[in-house]
Write a structure and sequence with these properties.
0% of the residues lie in helices and 49% in strands. By secondary structure, the protein is mainly beta. It is globular.
Length: 124
């Protein structure tokens, strides 16, 4: 079975940091692009960052550029999202997803598999 297990969320003060992990299993990790998305209460899901499997290209939403960094560890089949300088507006449930084309985008519609989400709460 395909599984994406997101973890690492929590409560942090503004200006703090968290590192999210997305552990993948049940598919050929090296062939898939992985994306991070988030959804705040009352808002639509938005793309945060993604990484291509083909060349390791990374993409970020404008709102997180310079603060968030995505990386992958193929030996562990895990993708990380390092989040620094967190702001209250980063509060959301964060999801990781896998795209079998291997080409990363911030469009949720292109992703085939989704994890269960991890809550990130940033207090002011």
């Amino acid at each position: 079975d395909v599984q994406l297990q997101a973890s690492g969320g929590g409560l942090v003060q503004a200006g703090g940091s968290l590192r999210l992990s997305c552990a993948a299993s049940g598919f050929t990790f090296d062939d898939y692009a992985i994306g991070w998305f988030r959804q705040a209460p009352g808002k639509e899901r938005e793309g945060v960052s993604c990484i291509s499997s083909s060349d390791g290209s990374t993409y970020y939403a404008d709102s997180v550029k310079g603060r968030f960094t995505i990386s992958s560890d193929h030996a562990k089949n895990t993708v990380y999202l390092q989040m620094n300088s967190l702001k209250p507006e980063d509060t959301a449930v964060y999801y990781c997803a896998a795209d079998r084309t291997g080409w990363a985008t911030l469009l949720s519609i292109t992703y085939d598999y989704w994890g269960q989400g991890t809550q990130v709460t940033v207090s002011s």
